[in-house]
Amino acid sequence: MTAHAHPELTKNQSLVFGSLSDAGGPLTAYAILDLLREDGFRAPLQVYRALDKLVEYGMVHRLESLNAFVACAHTGCSAHGAAAFAICEQCGDVIEFTPDEALKGLNDWAGAQDFTLARMTIELRGTCGACKSKAV
Amino acid sequence: MTAHAHPELTKNQSLVFGSLSDAGGPLTAYAILDLLREDGFRAPLQVYRALDKLVEYGMVHRLESLNAFVACAHTGCSAHGAAAFAICEQCGDVIEFTPDEALKGLNDWAGAQDFTLARMTIELRGTCGACKSKAV
DNA sequence: GAGTTTTATGTAATAATATAACGCGGTCTC
DNA sequence: GAGACCGCGTTATATTATTACATAAAACTC
Fold first, then answer.
1. Residue A70 to residue A50: CA distance in whole angstroms
2. Regions in chain B scoring below 70 on pLDDT
3. Bases along strand D below 7 A from a protein CB
4. Measured CA A75 to C1' D3 distance, in angstroms
5. Is-contact A134 A127, C-beta < 8 A?
6. Among candidates A4, A37, A5, which has minimal Cα distance to A16?
7. Is A115 an 8 Å CB contact of chain B?
8. Distance, Å, A17 CA → D14 C1'
9. Beta carbons within 10 angstroms of residue B102's beta carbon
10. Which of B7, B22, B111, B128 has its CA 20 to 30 A from that of A24?
């Protein structure tokens, strides 16, 4: 539960970020709630409020196609709105990456349309190399 | 409610596709349900089942970041998994487009990672040109 | 065309995800 | 110390989506 160069986290924010970091993968808000019951969490709102802040700080990403949340892979991940995720439908693993060419293309499109970008969601679904090897 | 070169739609599928086409923008499943009550719809499942098929046929897209559905902008939109959406947070308008450069970049990334793509979600959030003009 | 399988349907119940509304307590600032 | 703000706790509720079971209609097989 490293300190990070981010705003001092509150107790609830630290707990939520800790669960996500420890999980090493995506968790739903309710899964986090269950993990934190022993730490005194009682209600979904405690999780959602912390997640809102963590997403705002760029420490956590929301996976829209999974309704789940994941700790940012880049321990200091500040320059954002700009991550992409590949989600393996076999093993559930999520790979975060920065798709420079795609981002350029989308930014160009937005510029040409006079569309001001607030954020982007880029999520790939499929099967990762490891799972394909395993399959007969 | 044009006939399309697609599988013959069932009655429920036609009704759902019709509401989405008429709406000219995204609708949630429950919004569709309310629109179709006068046509005899009673339960969410009637909508979700039709939507599943329509998405499978490529006639409807799901907007993950909105939990909503929209009729495909390309009346015969067959070659898919490959659309992107720009969603204006002021007026709610959705622009569907095909981001060739971005798709190339993401496909290349997947190839390099040995990740087999099943589908992609690309959604841009922001403010469209028209809304920016209106703003003081 | 009788039997079988598949697909679509209707309905009720429930699960999973997310927010609204209220009140309390701390910490700033002035 | 009054006011503003923020985080927190709690209850209730809203929204989105699925499970489970029964019926009916279409398509396929022999």
1. 13
2. 1-6, 75-81, 136
3. 7-12, 15-20
4. 39
5. no
6. A37
7. yes
8. 27
9. 27
10. B111
